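Good day; I would like, with your permission, to put a structural problem before you. A protein sequence and the structure tokens that stand for its backbone fold form the material at issue. Thank you for your consideration; the sequence and its tokens are set out here:
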Amino acid sequence: KRMGLKAVIFHTNYIVNFLLQSYIDTWLQRNEEYWRKILEEYPDQMIYIENMFDEAPILLRQLARNMEGQERFGVCLDVAHAFISGSPIEPWFTALKPYIKHVHLNDNDGREDLHLPVGSGSFDWEEFNQWGRSIEKKPSFLIEVRTFEDLQRSVQYMEEHKIFPFI
């Protein structure tokens, strides 16, 4: 608040190998209660929840559904995290599409979160491009790489290949 930030991003911090339904139900309930309280306490902040170690988009989608009506709450889709999740990328796009308000972009090898420049790993940027062009309410973006040179390479690649949002 003191920094004048418009949005803050938090990871889901969901423990993926806890498969007990009671853990899942409690995680959803407590997260919904907590984020509603935070939104009330900080009326000028946007809150985005980012997929981190999530193996699938289901739980994040359910939290976003539960929070519908809270205009300042949304999903931050980290495409690199989704890519290394072990599940196909398309379900992430489909399941979270109505709730995505911010996107993190970088590339990797499909196994590790390497924060490579866009276009220098194994991620399917054409699939991302098709999805991005289909979004009605465009999210904000962050190219999340390690160096300024990697940022420049990412932007150059996205501009040359007309990758969303550089269309």
